[in-house]
């Protein structure tokens, strides 16, 4: 559009001076007219070039669009952070009865290490003799809540002390007393799981079922029935919470129970804990993207 305008102005100037040339006449006038036309044409073209130059400068000086980038530094920090395991519960979480001190949590870490190159970190809050109501109370602490919020996987052993009470409740089994114990346990277990889910809604929870350490005694049929009923109640409660998996252990100790128990005839020994770890490890799987 600017080029066409310049040519139109140039044509107008030429015609205007040509009319004057014919009216006045003379070679001197022709010479002066030629110089004037060339001068004006040069000025017009110079102005056109300057205008074009400003257009080009304005175009080339526009800021370039910034490329989209991902925060690779933060991504690397997350990947390098590893997998956080939080272990809660009683003496089984603590590893009582294992001469190595690992317990099922320690052997579980070894099993999971074969599935990923990420670092596996364990925070163990296991307390010997812990009951379900005490676990619910423990979960009100600020630090354990922070650990719960940061956990990728949670593991719980609880209920054995509620039921067995050092073996006293199964010495003389009374249906009414067992029912009361189970009712109190069920209420407290729901409190525990509700609290955990209010802090961490997504991390899978693996709750270990009970085995019967008295399976070799004369009343094993009755004690086994009590333990199975207890486990069924626990499994039903777990089913009401997302990503909460009940892990059965009863069958592991069902045959040759003394082969897998410590010298106290109550806690698992090294082999017993290893079998527990294998059981829960078989239920855990996740995709590891080592190339990301």
Automatic annotation (TrEMBL):
GO terms for molecular function: phosphatidylcholine lysophospholipase activity. Pfam families: Lipase_GDSL_2. This is SGNH/GDSL hydrolase family protein. The chain crosses the membrane at residues 33-57. Keywords: Hydrolase, Membrane, Transmembrane, Transmembrane helix. CDD domains: SGNH_hydrolase_YpmR_like. The keyword Transmembrane applies. Residues 87-275 form the SGNH hydrolase-type esterase domain. It comes from Niallia circulans (Bacillus circulans). The keyword Heme does not apply.
